[in-house]
Amino acid sequence: MYEDSFSMSKKELKFNSKAIHGGQHPDKAYGAVMPPIYQTSTYAQSTPGGHKGYEYSRGANPTRTALENAVASLENGNFGMAFGSGMAAIDAVMKLLGPGDEVICTSDLYGGSYRLFKGVFEKFGVRFRFSDMTDMQELASQINRNTKLVWVETPTNPMMNIIDIKAVSKIAKEHELLLAVDNTFATPYLQRPLELGADIVMHSATKYLAGHSDVVVGALVVRDEKLAEQLYFIQKSSGGICGPMDSFLTLRGIKTLHVRMQRHCENGESIAKYLENHPKIDTIYWPGFEWHPNHEVAKNQMRGFGGMISFVPKGGSYESAIKIVEKFQLFTLAESLGGVESLVGHPASMSHGSIPKEEREKNGVVDALIRLSVGIEDVEDLIADLDQALK
Ligand SMILES: *Cc1c(COP(=O)(O)O)cnc(C)c1O
Q1: What residue spans define the domains of the chain?
Q2: 323 φ/ψ angles, rounded to the nearest 5 degrees
Q3: DSSP H helices in 183-334
Q4: What is the pTM of this model?
Q5: Distance of CA 327 to the CA centre of its chain
Q6: Which residue ranges have their beta carbon within 6 Å of ligand 1?
Q7: Mapping DSSP to helix (H, G, I), strand (E, B) and coil, where does residue 104 land?
Q8: What does CATH list as the number for 258-390?
Q9: What does the pLDDT look like over 256-292, one tens digit per residue?
Q10: Is 381 one of the annotated active-site residues of the chain?
Q11: Nearest alpha-carbon partner for 128 in 111, 108, 110, 149
């Protein structure tokens, strides 16, 4: 369990202060305020085993520890682990399981998670069932003796469905299942799954946590010490760790998470409202609308509604959606999300290209769907860009 340098307990600090100080200490060597980039694979020992807590950087590295503590503090957990990517973090969670075990996951899932589950872990005998998780009875009906883990993504990508983490956690607890939540879209600024009953929080820190589109990093946070030991063992054994330079950059990004998220939410709201009134838009997905089917759940478990928005233009097709995304000038056409700059994506051909068309259309990821990651630029400039792209 990590410790904070200040005398106030970490539970007492409010979120914005935690973003800057949570789990952090001035460096022991020279008092450096930002943790140095310990670009080293190994550590001198005075006698075999005589070290200062670090032996070899696959097991632990001080810069990575600083990041792991920061994320654990923000999620109000006790133990953090940083990985070389979000996928490596998910991979570590799935390695808690063995052949014959079953996982129930959100049906509207990040494409890479779907690919990892179906393409890699099914080969090792882990089975995956999918549920939209809006109907708790339906979710309970999928549970059997082999079920071990529930994997939740909320808001979902790219459909922005909101899953009631507390309700799912109640069912998971009744059946003694682990509950893991991919908190990439919301970040701990908007929602903290451990406080709602989840056992594991996962992040693609590549996105909002790091926030500057300059690293690929993943993270896990848990409260339970036994579970933490198992995950540290997997992290060290499989080795999908985050390097010191990327740990440093992610930590640097986290220090402004609260300020960035506030602006992402404000800009997201302005753009969602602009699109809602746009004559060329058929459907728009954003949980902040009162008419969004899961708005009440979103209001209860999230502090704001974020900057991720998906929409379908009227009469849109695969080809017309591609034409529109090519026309953006300020929004960059790119994979990924959560950076300071605005991005636009075409899920059917990009992030969700690895999901069979039939499977993805069942969840609403139609050919004409366009996804925005609204950045923190001046919102007037972003709206002007949308305006010209939709003409
Ligand atoms: C990007 C993403 C991932 C995968 O993370 P990487 O850092 O790209 O490996 C997982 N879940 C969600 C929701 C994501 O957006």
Answers
A1: 2-254, 258-390
A2: -60, -45
A3: 187-190, 225-238, 244-254, 257-276, 295-301, 318-327
A4: 0.96
A5: 28
A6: 85-87, 110, 112-113, 153, 157, 182, 184-185, 204, 206-207, 216, 218
A7: strand
A8: 3.90.1150.10
A9: 999 999 999 999 999 999 999 999 999 999 999 999 9
A10: no
A11: 149
